[in-house]
Structure formats: C-alpha cells, structure tokens
Amino acid sequence: LNSTACCLEVDSGAAYTVISASCFNSLRRKPNLERNTIILRDYQGNMIETLGTGYVRVEYKNVHKTLPVIVIKGTRVVNLLGRNWFEPLNINVSGINQVHNAVLNNVIQTELESEFAEVFDGTLGVFRGPPISLNLPRDVNPIVCKVRKVPFALRPLIEDELDRLQQQGVIEPVTHPRWATPIVPVVKASNEIRLCADYRITVNKVLRPETYPIPNVQDMLANLAGGRVFAKLDLTQAYQQLTVDDEAAEAQTIITHKGAFRVKRLQFGISNAPQIFQQLIDQRLQGIPGVMPYFDDILVVAKDEAQLLGRLREVLTRFREDGLKLKKAKCVFNVHEIEFLGHKISSRGLEPAEEKNSSDHSSTGPK
C-alpha cells in the first residue's frame, strides 16, 4: 500500500477493506483522510470508530490499482481485505475460506439496511420527480357514480383502510366531487383489505392508451447469462409512491359509504398505470448493468458478491435520491437461486418455479 508492504487478512464477510491506525502511520506516503460516512459494526453489533477514508495505491501480484481504505482507530486492529477489493484485485475466495452464503446474505442485507435506512423504514415513499398526468381529453365529461353497497361485516375493515390511506397522504376527503368511482374491496389472505376502484366505468373510458411497451418476460430472462448471484427488490405500494397532478387526483376520486375521497397518488386499476410506472422505473434504473425491473419487482444479477453489492448500492442510491421505498420483508439479497416471474433462476439457467409446476396440474382457473 503506497509502496509499503502490509499484511491484510482476506475476509469475505467484510464489505470494506480496513486497516489499523498503526498500519496507516507506517505508510511511506499517507493519503489524506476524508470523513467516513459508512457506519461500521463488529460481529456483536457495536459501532466501530474510524479516523476516515482515504485512497491508497495497491500493488498485488501484477495488479496496480488505486482503491479506498477505511482507517480504524486503535493499534490492535486486524487489517482486513474486504469484498470491495475482490474484483479490482481479481481475488476469488473459495473452499475453506468461503463464508456460507446464508451468513453472507445476512451480512449484505444488514449492511444495506443500515446504509440506506430511509429506503427500508417501512413508510410509504413519495417520488420527488414531477407529478404524473393522465392526459385526459380537454372536452371530457366527468362521470359520477353512486356508492355501491358493501357487506356490513367489511365496513370496519374498509374504514380502517381509509384511515390508513389518509394518514399516508394517499387520499383526502372531498365534498363535491366532479368524478366518483365506486370501490371494490378485496379481502386478502391475511384478512387485510385492499381498496380497488372500478375505473372501467369511469376514467378508463376516456383515457388515451399509453404506447410504452411492457417488457417481454422471455426477453428479460434471456439476458441472465453469466449470473451466479441474485437479489430481488420489492417496492412498497409501488404505484402509490407516485404523486399525480390535480386533474388526475380529481379523476381518480373514489366513492365509499364514508363519502368521497380524492386520490393523490397513482391508482391500481387505472388502465395506463402499468405503462406509466414501468417507463418511470426503467428510466430511473437505466444504465445499471444486471438490473431488470418488472413493475414493482426488480431483479439484480451479478457474477459474484462484490459485483452484486455494487449494483445494489447503485439502485438503492437512486431510490434514496428519488424518495422511493422498499418493502424489507419481500426483498431477497445475495442468493444463488431465486424465483422471478414464474421461473427459478440460478447459475444453471432457468427452470419452472415449483409453484408454477404444481399449478399446471391443480389450477382451477383464474381467481
């Protein structure tokens, strides 16, 4: 390091390369240190104090690279060569030194959830870009429908969901709506309720079709060659992270037994919503290799853990900048086999997912 011989222990469980203060002071040329913005913790979860981050000239075998290193306070610190140096130095760890994938998966997940805490905080995101417009025709005549009766037993669930959506800023009450679409309550297996709206009889009648193409699943899966490790990210209430303009919010108004509510976020059931969302997420993740968004699911493919971590960081950085949030419980990090769009994906290639196989024999039709 900077023309000084140093001994570092290769540790695939460490995301970053770190050296002790004494090792740093022994360098012939000490780099300038900048404030370290990365939170480091030991295996017990205790925070590790750092002096800062600097760049050193690394010579390893026939490789010469300038790479970042974090300097740890104290002299009795083991110098660790972490995963961020593996790819630049062409290091591959295998056999007895390889960390079990389940452990490494947990390390990567914990690290990313700490570094991008606001992306995983469980709240509903608000996209920081311009609001979505539905581009309604200028001469459109608004349609107002009457409220539909719902089973009395569902009313408390509907009211709870309306309260939750108001607290999230998705809806707000309105007294004299120009548009009104009846709701269609859907009870999920968890006994929670999803409030859909029957936009087929209102705004969808007048919307102009969007021309943006939805990705072809087979074309996406054909681009997986070389993938050995995988991750999958899931956006929380994906459409509802996108705000809409006043005209669209008015057109999406729902009518319930508790009155009318103006919907300020993009709604599931709007005929153009899939194309609008897919185009936005494609644009926001454009240029990151190995990243394949399909609506609210994002597959990330890489050849090794270091490359995967780098690509995940880039995705999460953009989401943080955009104000978008992920559902932590549905995200999967650093696995060698993953299910995506009805297929099991691994380094061996594609196989039908087990659920899909069983449904081929037992399905009774759409539900």
TrEMBL record:
It comes from the Eukaryota. CDD domains: RT_LTR (cd01647). Residues 188-345 form the Reverse transcriptase domain. InterPro entries: DNA/RNA_pol_sf (IPR043502), Peptidase_aspartic_dom_sf (IPR021109), Retrovirus_Pol_polyprotein (IPR050951), Rev_trsase/Diguanyl_cyclase (IPR043128), RT_dom (IPR000477). GO terms for biological process: DNA biosynthetic process. Pfam families: RVT_1. PANTHER family: PROTEIN CBG26694, RIBONUCLEASE H. This is Reverse transcriptase domain-containing protein. It comes from Photinus pyralis (Common eastern firefly).
